[in-house]
Amino acid sequence: xxxxxxxxxxxxxxxxxxxxxxxxxxxxxxxxxxxxxxxxxxxxxxxxxxxxxxxxxxxxxxxxxxxxxxxxxxxxxxxxxxxxxxxxxxxxxxxx
Length: 96
Ligand SMILES: [Mg+2]
Description:
The chain has 2 domains: 1-65, no CATH class; 67-96. The mean pLDDT is 96. Strands 1-2 form a two-stranded antiparallel ribbon. The protein is flat. The chain has 3 helices and 2 strands. The longest helix has 28 residues, at 68-95. It starts with 7 loop residues before the first helix and ends with a helix. By secondary structure, it is mainly alpha-helical. The structure holds magnesium ion. Residues 18, 21, 51, 54 line the site of magnesium ion. Magnesium ion is lined by residues 18, 21, 51, 54.
């Protein structure tokens, strides 16, 4: 079996689940620390890496169903947009 055996709706359901697991892993880092180890869970930052990998695996499988050009555009510009907004907010706070 391959990812072609999963429907678009099944892949979207999996993406929702995996995105939620990324959020959960981030929240554990914020509560207990980046390097915290919990028996039965592991090291927080390693768990986050695994969950991000799960998301990327689902995204790879979704490629036949979604616009990869839009995805690549956003991927390459996201940090630049965040930095632009950070600069705008800092200027506003400086002038307030
Ligand atoms: Mg997962």
